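Problem: given the chain below (65 residues), write out its structure.
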Amino acid sequence: MLQSLSCGVTASGPPRWRDGRPAQSVVTTEDEAIQLACRTDGQPPPTVTWSINGQQVPAGQIARL
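Solution.
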């Protein structure tokens, strides 16, 4: 009698930058708006947070320095 068996495999890995490099420093003038982006991958998916002077910035919030 022919039987079938299947399974799934999930490979775990450390977080990594999706474009192969970490974020760069940004220099701007006063009152100039900038947008910072962070693209990461990992298994399990990494959690990305932003902070200013040790205070976490809530997702989607506009921060003024």
